[in-house]
């Protein structure tokens, strides 16, 4: 079997698995094996999605979540990369922050919710803050270890060709050499941030998470599933776009 | 050495260099006057401190004692020295031409001049056509040629070469050795060339500096510096080649 055939076969099996899952789900409900109050019929989901979109609610909550997400992501990524790269390059910064990082690192982003609410109230800023924490750590660790593992031989080349100053080495060696690791961190943060969005909104900050809580309190499981699929779909879209960008930026790699 | 070389001031002057790490010295008592366009090869067993010496001469490494002087570059669009490393160490994230431009960045050159100054040495090593390629698409020999072009682009007074051909296969090594002989006619640079290959040293150099003589109690030093009074072309076929080789070998042997 050629590799193209093998790939086609894989895709075919994947589609088959997904269809079989939906079919079993549908049949289990229709035959009464599963109670309809617990899960919705898969076949009703497209209709419910259309209704949410027509209502304007879908667009509103998605935009709201996307706003928290992008602000938190931007803030967390920028700070994480800045601190990570500085710590990797400057021994004093490294030593200064090492214990602090060890202390704060294990605290999950959601554990900051009480403070987020005290500091910012139940509003978008609080959500963005919580999202930025998880994203920060991922980017911090990825960029720190990426810069630390840059071949010191490149630094010697920079010094041998008049580019030995801190800024020249940062721009011409450290950042481009560490780019694969830094971009890997950004991509992981993209996922982590999106998970946190929904969790942060479950506490009543307007967005996808809040809409899901609302729906579940009315036992509208079909609406819950619509937004679960929305989350998955949006994430797949971001990830695809980012991968395209990443491939372009790292086209120098073999 | 020709008369003109002796009358011009040296492009590099080292006196009483002592090198090592922490409290221990590896190599002591190195003096060197390098004259314009001169080619000095440094040979010695591995661990004797050849690469350390090269880095100290370039100022990449502080010596424990002694001095190195390299008079500053004559023009604002050149650098006093540059280096070719054992592995090519091209930046994989830069295309070939941008790699060659590295040393030109920050010099008084416009973007257009910089580009021209990068293509010039690339043509010299026969790789002008690969200017827009990524380094990983090049063979090892081609990558090392780019490394040489990168070093030549800054028009250095002194070119340091750290076992530049030792990682290449025998056929490529021979070809690049010949190219270096030809290159010397077209560049002004004086060359300090570190190698563990005695034949390579005798083949290329005007002078060969033999390092050795270290014991458990005593760091290495300069055993002898030998002139190689042979014409550059077809040295391997010259009747005096074997004698020069033997002379160097004798000193390396005597160092143990």
Describe this structure in words.
- Chain A has 254 residues and is mostly helical.
- Chain A has two domains: 1-34; 44-249, MetI-like fold (Orthogonal Bundle).
- Chain A is 80% helix and 0% strand.
- Chain A has helices at 3-30, 45-55, 57-89, 91-104, 113-120, 124-148, 152-160, 166-201, 208-217, 221-249.
- In chain A, helix 6 packs antiparallel against helix 8 (166-201).
- In chain A, 31% of the residues are buried.
- The model of chain A has no long low-confidence stretch (mean pLDDT 92).
- Chain B has 256 residues and is of the alpha/beta class.
- In chain B, 33% of the residues lie in helices and 23% in strands.
- In chain B, the strands form two sheets. Chain B has a six-stranded mixed beta sheet, with helices on both faces. Chain B has a three-stranded antiparallel beta sheet with strand order 2-1-4, with helices on one face.
- In chain B, helix 6 (170-184) links the parallel strand 6 (158-162) and strand 7.
- The longest helix of chain B has 15 residues, at 170-184.
- Classes of the chains: A mainly alpha (254), B alpha/beta (256).
- Chains A and B meet through helix 7 and helix 8 of A and loops of B.
Short description:
The complex is a heterodimer of chains A (254) and B (256). Chain A is mainly alpha-helical.
Summarize the topology.
The complex is a heterodimer of chains A (254) and B (256).
Chain A: H1 3-30, H2 45-55, H3 57-89, H4 91-104, H5 113-120, H6 124-148, H7 152-160, H8 166-201, H9 208-217, H10 221-249
Chain B: H1 3-7, E1 12-21, E2 24-34, E3 39-43, H2 50-58, E4 65-69, E5 81-84, H3 96-101, H4 111-124, H5 140-153, E6 158-162, H6 170-184, E7 190-194, H7 198-204, E8 207-212, E9 221-227, H8 241-254
> Largest beta sheet of chain B: what is the strand line-up?
5-6-7-3-8-9
What is the succession of H and E elements of chain A? Answer: HHHHHHHHHH
Q: What fold name goes in the CATH topology slot of the largest domain in chain B?
A: Rossmann fold
**What percentage of amino acids of chain A are in beta strands?**
under 5%
Q: Poorly predicted ranges of chain A (pLDDT <50, ≥5 residues)?
A: none
CATH C-level category of the largest domain in chain A = Mainly Alpha
- Tally of individual domains of chain B: 2
- What CATH calls the topology of the largest domain in chain A is MetI-like fold
Listing every helix as H and every strand as E from the N terminus to the C terminus, the arrangement of chain B reads HEEEHEEHHHEHEHEEH
- Point out poorly predicted stretches of chain B: none
- Give a short account of the largest sheet of chain A: none
Global morphology of chain A: globular
Question: Outline of chain B, from the CA principal axes?
Answer: globular
CATH level-1 class of the largest domain in chain B: Alpha Beta
Q: Determine the fraction of residues in helical runs of chain B and give it as a percent range.
A: 25-40%
Main beta sheet strand tally, sense and closure of chain B: 6 strands, mixed
**How many domains, in number, for the residues of chain A?**
2
Total E-strand runs of chain B: 9
Query: For this structure, what is the CATH homologous superfamily of the largest domain in chain A?
Result: MetI-like
């Amino acid at each position: 079997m050629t590799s193209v055939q093998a790939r086609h076969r894989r895709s075919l099996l994947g589609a088959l698995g997904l269809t079989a899952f939906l079919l079993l789900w549908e049949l289990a409900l229709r035959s009464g094996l599963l109670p309809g109050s617990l899960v919705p019929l898969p076949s009703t989901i497209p209709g419910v999605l259309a209704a949410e979109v027509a209502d304007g609610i879908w667009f509103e909550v998605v935009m709201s979540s996307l706003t928290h997400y992008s602000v938190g992501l931007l803030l967390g990524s920028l700070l994480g990369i800045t601190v990570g790269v500085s710590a990797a390059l400057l021994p004093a910064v490294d030593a200064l922050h090492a214990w602090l990082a060890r202390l704060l690192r294990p605290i999950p982003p959601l554990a900051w919710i009480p403070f987020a609410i005290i500091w910012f109230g139940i509003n978008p800023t609080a959500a963005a803050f919580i999202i930025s924490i998880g994203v920060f750590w991922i980017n911090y660790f990825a960029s720190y270890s990426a810069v630390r593992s840059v071949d010191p031989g490149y630094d010697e080349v920079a010094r041998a060709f008049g580019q030995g100053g801190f800024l020249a080495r940062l721009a011409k060696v450290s950042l481009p050499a560490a780019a694969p690791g830094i971009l890997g961190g950004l991509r992981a943060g993209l996922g982590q941030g999106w998970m946190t969005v929904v969790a942060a909104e479950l506490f009543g900050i307007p967005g996808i998470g809040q809409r899901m809580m609302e729906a579940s309190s009315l036992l509208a499981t079909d609406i819950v599933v619509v937004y679960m699929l929305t989350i998955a779909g949006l994430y797949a879209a971001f990830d695809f776009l980012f991968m395209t960008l990443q491939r372009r930026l790292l086209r120098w790699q073999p | 050495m020709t008369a003109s070389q002796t009358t011009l001031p040296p492009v590099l002057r080292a006196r009483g260099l002592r090198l090592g790490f922490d409290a221990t010295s590896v190599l002591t008592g190195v003096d060197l006057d390098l004259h314009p366009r001169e080619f000095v090869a440094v040979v010695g067993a591995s661990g004797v401190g050849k690469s350390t010496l090269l880095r100290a001469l370039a100022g990449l490494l502080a010596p424990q004692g002694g001095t190195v002087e390299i008079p500053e570059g004559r023009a604002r669009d050149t650098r006093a020295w540059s280096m070719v490393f054992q592995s090519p160490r091209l930046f994989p994230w830069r295309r070939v031409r941008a790699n060659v431009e590295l040393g030109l960045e920050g010099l008084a050159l416009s973007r257009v001049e910089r580009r021209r100054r990068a293509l010039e040495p690339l043509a010299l090593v026969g790789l002008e056509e690969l200017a827009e390629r990524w380094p990983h698409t090049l063979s090892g020999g081609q990558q090392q040629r780019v490394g040489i072009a990168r070093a030549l682009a800054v028009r250095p007074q002194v070119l340091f070469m750290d076992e530049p051909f030792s990682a290449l296969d025998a056929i490529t090594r021979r070809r690049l050795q010949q190219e270096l002989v030809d290159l010397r006619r077209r560049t002004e640079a004086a060359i300090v060339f570190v190698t563990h290959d005695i034949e390579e040293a005798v083949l290329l150099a005007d002078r060969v500096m033999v390092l050795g003589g270290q014991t458990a109690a005593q760091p290495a030093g300069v055993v002898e510096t030998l002139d190689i009074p042979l014409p550059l072309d077809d040295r391997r076929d010259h009747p005096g080649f074997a004698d020069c080789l033997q002379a160097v070998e004798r000193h390396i042997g005597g160092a143990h």
